[in-house]
Amino acid sequence: MIAYIKGTLIHIEDQAVIVESHGIGYQIFCPNPFVFQGEIGSEVKIYTFHYVREDAQILYGFKKTEEKALFSKILNVSGIGPKGALSILSTAKVGDFVAAIEREDEQYLTSFSGVGKKTARQMMLDLKGKLPFVDTTESIVEGNEETHPLELDKSVAIEDAVEAMKALGYSDKELKPILPILKKEQHANTDEFVRKGLALMMQKG
């Protein structure tokens, strides 16, 4: 699982950026690629969501970890795929979207392309009370608990590790019991969470 890519921004396309790292050019689809316009030729760090399906592997990229976290949450909503989630993030600020979910603002949610009343209600049902967002001090708030941005990085790394293990054939039901154990790990990145998770699955087997 690729948690982020650091490299030289080579080119900006309508829907993606090209970043070269160690001689490899990565095409990364972004909500708004042109936010990187002033960084062509410079080193950038883009937080990535590695989407894996049977016929493709696609990288989606974000400037901030909270954008990536929200993208992964929206993907869990029935009826919304990566393109739909990316479209939402191309026009919505993280805080505005989370506030709309919490106050059940159907009118705001249906303003996004491809989101009808049925999908908006499904988003409210699936996401209310489960979303991180940034307050004015740039700390992360989830529910009533304030979390440091490093904790969000950890949460994103765990989510990426879970997606990687699902790609290896494990189901949500199989993975759910090991999540509390992974959350107790300190200073681990995605690869370390994957290794720990696989070791725990082997012990269960």
UniProtKB/TrEMBL annotation:
* SUPFAM superfamilies associated with the record: DNA helicase RuvA subunit, C-terminal domain, Nucleic acid-binding proteins, RuvA domain 2-like
InterPro entries, sorted? DNA_helicase_Holl-junc_RuvA_I, Hlx-hairpin-Hlx_DNA-bd_motif, NA-bd_OB-fold, RuvA, RuvA_2-like, RuvA_C, RuvA_C_sf
Question: Which GO molecular function, any one, fits this protein according to its record?
Answer: four-way junction helicase activity
The Gene Ontology biological process annotation of the record reads: DNA recombination; DNA repair
Sorted alphabetically, which CDD domains does this protein's record hold?
A: UBA_RuvA_C
- DNA damage in keyword set: yes
Residues of the region (Domain II) are 64-141
Pfam families, alphabetically?
HHH_5 (PF14520), RuvA_C (PF07499), RuvA_N (PF01330)
Residue segments, region Domain III = 156-205
Q: Which UniProt keywords apply?
A: Cytoplasm, DNA damage, DNA recombination, DNA repair, DNA-binding, Hydrolase
List localization entries. Cytoplasm
Residue span(s) of domain Helix-hairpin-helix DNA-binding motif class: 72-91, 107-126
Tell me if Nucleus is a UniProt keyword of this record. no
Q: Name one GO cellular component term.
A: cytoplasm
Q: What is known of its domains?
A: Has three domains with a flexible linker between the domains II and III and assumes an 'L' shape. Domain III is highly mobile and contacts RuvB.
Protein family (similarity comment): Belongs to the RuvA family.
Q: What does this protein do?
A: The RuvA-RuvB-RuvC complex processes Holliday junction (HJ) DNA during genetic recombination and DNA repair, while the RuvA-RuvB complex plays an important role in the rescue of blocked DNA replication forks via replication fork reversal (RFR). RuvA specifically binds to HJ cruciform DNA, conferring on it an open structure. The RuvB hexamer acts as an ATP-dependent pump, pulling dsDNA into and through the RuvAB complex. HJ branch migration allows RuvC to scan DNA until it finds its consensus sequence, where it cleaves and resolves the cruciform DNA.
Give the multimer and partner information: Homotetramer. Forms an RuvA(8)-RuvB(12)-Holliday junction (HJ) complex. HJ DNA is sandwiched between 2 RuvA tetramers; dsDNA enters through RuvA and exits via RuvB. An RuvB hexamer assembles on each DNA strand where it exits the tetramer. Each RuvB hexamer is contacted by two RuvA subunits (via domain III) on 2 adjacent RuvB subunits; this complex drives branch migration. In the full resolvosome a probable DNA-RuvA(4)-RuvB(12)-RuvC(2) complex forms which resolves the HJ.
What protein name does the entry list? Holliday junction branch migration complex subunit RuvA
Q: Which organism is it from?
A: Terrihalobacillus insolitus
